[in-house]
Amino acid sequence: MLVGQSCLISRAFPSSCEQESKWSYMTNHILEKTSNKRLHDVVSGGHSEVMDKDQWRQTKSPKLTDSSTSKSDCRDSDNLISAIGRDNSISCLMWCSRSDYGVLASLNHGFRSLIRSGELYGRRRKNKITEHWVYFSCNVNEWEAYDPYRARWINLPKMPPNECFMCSDKESLAVGTELLVFGKEVNAHIVLRYTILTNSWSPGIAMNSPRCLFGSASSGDKAIVAGGSDALGAILSSAELYNSETQTWTTLPSMNKPRKMCSGVFMDEKFYVIGGMASNTELLTCGEEFDPEKGTWRVIPNMSLGLNGASGAPPLVAVVNNELYAAHYAHQEIRKYDKENNVWITLGKLPERPVSMNGWGLAFRACGEQLIVIGGPRALGGGVIELHSWIPKEDEPPEWNMIARKQSGSFVYNCAVMGC
């Protein structure tokens, strides 16, 4: 792995280390060559002094590129890395870490337009290049993200102020390059949409049948939501597909059973709804499997048996390498689902420090090849949030590692993992 303007995340990419290193070196070398060429042009164009690094950074201001460039500079901007052309530039840049895209967007108008258009992320998706970041909210109307590859925290802009939305129950879903947060405004459900392309919040597109307390999961630029309750409290069996590229909702066939407070996952190219409540008192232990190819639902008896109680949070489930895991918050255990026998097998204990209130305030997510538990210990005089990680290995008990810790609220209201 090379360190510089271009950096690769080797475990996230399917190709060999040798190929990654070649791409990384090529991108880094060409960017430096382009920068040196521009530096020479600036110096020879009337500046007799030798510029230091700070002065050189000022010459790369996007304002100069946007307002006072020559026609040649504009053509270079459109070509991105002018020495190799636009298509080859994108082929190089898609292998860079998404952590570098903010810096790349500041180089000139061409780079900024490329990052904001989403084309680069589309290329990454087609080539199965994915980095997973964890997004979560421990304070009302505030979100932050954690990049496990660079071990850094990112503060998102604050959500638009809305008192009703702030006080309502909320669901979250990361799909494509978007983070969707679902809540309520007086008697209507609304959606707020954050996009990494512009680092901003805006109103999202409402579902065909708006709801809350639903199960959901995403795969690439698509997501499915199922169940939940409407604005009048009726429990739903309907399901919808969201396409983040077109920002549209499509109604899918309904489930066999209406349910709310359920969980959702993608596994083996199928969507599963797990657990939930059939009424305010009736706990469901069955799951349902949706086959996108056939457009049909299948009931799986006892799929969530024993994972949660009627007064607890929805089942805390996550999928890594097409294997389903659950965090049993009552017994502080990590369990694995045996698909063939439809039973849960206890693997070991959850991390000791994060605590919850019947599962509320604790997040359990898949983040690439690892499982992550997010929560905080009980503490007086200020909260702390911790991220614990474990990479599942066959027939081995869990060994949790604390990968991040910071001062924050210790109760996780919402959490989603964005892979792009």
Automatic annotation (TrEMBL):
Pfam family, one: Kelch_1
SMART domains: Kelch
Keyword annotations of the record: Kelch repeat, Repeat
Record has Oxidoreductase as a keyword: no
Region (Disordered): 46-73
Comp. bias regions, Polar residues: 58-71
Designated name of the protein: F-box/kelch-repeat protein
Entry-linked InterPro entries: F-box/Kelch-repeat, Kelch-typ_b-propeller, Kelch_1
Listed GO CC annotations: nucleus
Superkingdom classification of source: Eukaryota
